[in-house]
């Protein structure tokens, strides 16, 4: 018997399905691409159980004859290319001819299609076996039904994520195509509920409004430029409208959604020094380039492209984004910067030293008699430390005070309070303090994050999270994808202090927020928290657990790097930190506290 033999076609198709059909969202992507290539102006996507039970994609494209439909179910059968030379000029989204046979090999698939109104041809495939054709009345176009995905490959079914994650992935694909093809009217329903609908008017800004919401669409600046043979068009958000993740950065090359490091870095370069660290602009950017200058045959999913001239693509994106921001007055030009600098110089010259002290930022830790008097050492852990902030200084945390009466064995890190004397705040980020053991440097953000996290997860005991009810309930407007995915996490958000309820469409009414953020914008914090939940569920393909929500929430509620703190606030923060389970690492694993011991300092300066 020969050792080498040919695999049967069904096995070959199932192997190919492992590359093309990774999850229900992969099926949605392939079928929507086929509909767009067929010239459809209306595409309907229906999902049941996030696509595990049913995926139905219907379009009004050119349709197929019975013979073409039969041929389309064969591996590597396509109408997009005829030879390898055509790969140099691919303008369609599909061209491999693998999608339909791969999907049919791992599901129960049926195709209903016609090239004109009247009688449709219906083909059913189960496990790769094509049944006898049938007829049915219907309009011109094609409808593909995919039922019981992975029913014959249970190992693949076992590795699917939660319904929330799978739905988020599918909505992400439909959202991208709905924005990139505004002339096509998209509809996506899940379990009978409308999730996405666009008008198909042809206006990209209107499509963005339908998918991301009107509030976001109003802030965007148009991008339109031709650089180095690349035509760029789309919209970008100003530096003050950002997201905590890249989930809202849509990049397309010749109409194809892509993810490449070159393009991502170019976007970051364009916004460097304009957006805060770890904040990302919202972006829809269509790049039109000669197909001969790119390679789209890189991966089976067709999500990557290679540019013949990577540097030119990089510069084109960076220049076009900066130009768009400047043109819309979102970036100052040279004249504006010069005028602002001159005005600032005149103001400073006209102020006396006393005026400057009066107008400088408050709570500076190194200057002023009041600050110096506040630096008297605190008593050691045996005595009751001075933890109450000054009457004029609000505490950084609104959670209950630490359990000072607990025995020292339950608080192994009270050495942080041993003769504590806060020296000041460096770069509005680090707290510098002196203890009997040396000099302590504390990152104020991650320290507060650790404190809040331990209250949220109950390490401080069953303490209820203090809520601040809003005098006037506020409305939280989200994009469709975020609103749908948030429905399953409302209880988790309520557990950390947010009281909200659906208010129709993509809106939620916020009636109460955690008291820890009473001095901040609660809607912005809630939006950032929702964005991270969506990013975790969709992009990282993880189900946000309760602990992850605690970690995200504590990060959003904590004081930030750059927030000025008074001496009393810094003392309170350190006192709370000393009673935590671990004052050296935040929930993300970043260091909180660095101690320079007395002996180490003396050795550094050669005093021993």
Automatic annotation (TrEMBL):
SUPFAM superfamilies: ATPase domain of HSP90 chaperone/DNA topoisomerase II/histidine kinase, DNA mismatch repair protein MutL, Ribosomal protein S5 domain 2-like
Function: This protein is involved in the repair of mismatches in DNA. It is required for dam-dependent methyl-directed DNA mismatch repair. May act as a 'molecular matchmaker', a protein that promotes the formation of a stable complex between two or more DNA-binding proteins in an ATP-dependent manner without itself being part of a final effector complex.
All copies of domain MutL C-terminal dimerisation, residue ranges: 422-565
Protein name: DNA mismatch repair protein MutL
Source organism per UniProt: Fimbriimonas ginsengisoli Gsoil 348
Record-level GO BP terms: mismatch repair
Domain DNA mismatch repair protein S5: 208-326
SMART domains named among the record's database cross-references: DNA_mis_repair (SM01340), MutL_C (SM00853)
């Amino acid at each position: 018997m020969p050792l080498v033999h040919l695999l049967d076609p069904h096995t070959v198709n199932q192997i190919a399905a492992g590359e093309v059909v990774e999850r229900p969202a992969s099926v949605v992507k392939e079928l929507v691409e086929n509909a767009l290539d067929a010239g459809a102006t209306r595409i309907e996507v229906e999902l049941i159980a996030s696509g595990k039970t049913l995926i139905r994609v219907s379009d009004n494209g050119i349709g197929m004859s019975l013979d073409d439909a039969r041929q389309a179910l064969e591996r590597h059968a396509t109408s997009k290319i005829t030879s390898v030379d055509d790969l140099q000029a691919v303008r369609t989204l599909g061209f491999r001819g693998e999608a339909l046979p791969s999907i049919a090999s791992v599901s129960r698939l049926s195709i209903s299609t016609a090239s004109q109104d009247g009688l449709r041809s219906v083909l059913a495939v189960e496990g790769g076996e094509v049944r006898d054709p049938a007829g049915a009345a219907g309009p011109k176009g094609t409808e593909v039904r995919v039922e019981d995905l992975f029913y014959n490959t249970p190992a693949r079914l076992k590795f699917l994520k939660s319904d929330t994650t799978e739905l988020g992935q599918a909505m992400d694909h439909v959202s991208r195509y709905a924005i990139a093809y505004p002339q096509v009217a998209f509809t996506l329903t899940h379990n009978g509920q409308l999730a996405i609908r666009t008008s198909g008017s042809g206006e990209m800004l209107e499509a963005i409004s339908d998918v991301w919401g009107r509030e976001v669409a109003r802030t965007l600046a148009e991008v339109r430029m031709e650089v180095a043979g690349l035509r760029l068009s789309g919209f970008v958000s100003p530096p003050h409208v950002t997201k905590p993740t890249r989930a809202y950065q849509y990049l397309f090359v010749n109409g194809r959604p892509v993810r490449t490091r070159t393009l991502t870095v170019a976007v970051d370069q364009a916004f460097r020094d304009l957006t805060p660290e770890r904040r990302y602009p919202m972006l829809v950017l269509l790049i039109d380039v000669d197909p001969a200058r790119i390679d789209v045959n890189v991966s089976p999913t067709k999500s990557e492209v290679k540019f013949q001239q990577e540097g030119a693509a990089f510069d084109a994106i960076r220049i076009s984004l900066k130009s768009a921001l400047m043109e819309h007055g979102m970036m100052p030009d040279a004249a504006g910067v010069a005028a602002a600098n001159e005005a600032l110089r005149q103001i400073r010259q006209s102020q006396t030293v006393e005026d400057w002290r009066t107008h400088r930022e408050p709570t500076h830790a190194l200057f002023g008699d009041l600050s110096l008097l506040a630096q008297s050492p605190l008593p050691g852990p045996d005595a009751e430390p001075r933890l109450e902030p000054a009457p004029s200084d609000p505490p950084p945390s609104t959670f209950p005070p630490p359990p000072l009466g607990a025995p020292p064995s339950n608080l192994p890190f009270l050495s942080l309070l041993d003769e504590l004397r806060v020296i000041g705040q460096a770069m509005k980020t680090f707290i510098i303090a002196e203890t009997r053991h040396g000099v302590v440097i504390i990152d104020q953000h991650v320290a507060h994050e650790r404190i809040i996290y331990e209250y949220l997860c109950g390490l401080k005991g069953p303490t209820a999270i203090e809520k601040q009810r809003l005098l006037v309930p506020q409305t939280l407007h989200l994009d469709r994808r975020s609103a749908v995915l948030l429905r399953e996490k409302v209880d988790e958000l309520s557990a950390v202090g947010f009281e909200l309820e659906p208010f129709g469409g993509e809106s939620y009414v916020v009636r109460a927020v955690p008291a820890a953020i009473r001095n901040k914008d609660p809607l912005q914090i809630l939006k950032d928290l929702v964005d991270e939940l969506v990013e975790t569920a969709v992009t990282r393909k993880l189900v946000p657990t309760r602990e992850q929500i605690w970690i995200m929430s504590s990060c959003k509620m904590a004081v930030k790097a750059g927030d000025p703190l008074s001496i009393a606030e810094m003392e309170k923060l350190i006192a709370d930190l000393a009673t935590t389970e671990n004052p050296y690492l935040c929930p993300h694993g970043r260091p909180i506290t660095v101690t320079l011991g007395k002996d180490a300092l003396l050795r550094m300066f050669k005093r021993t």
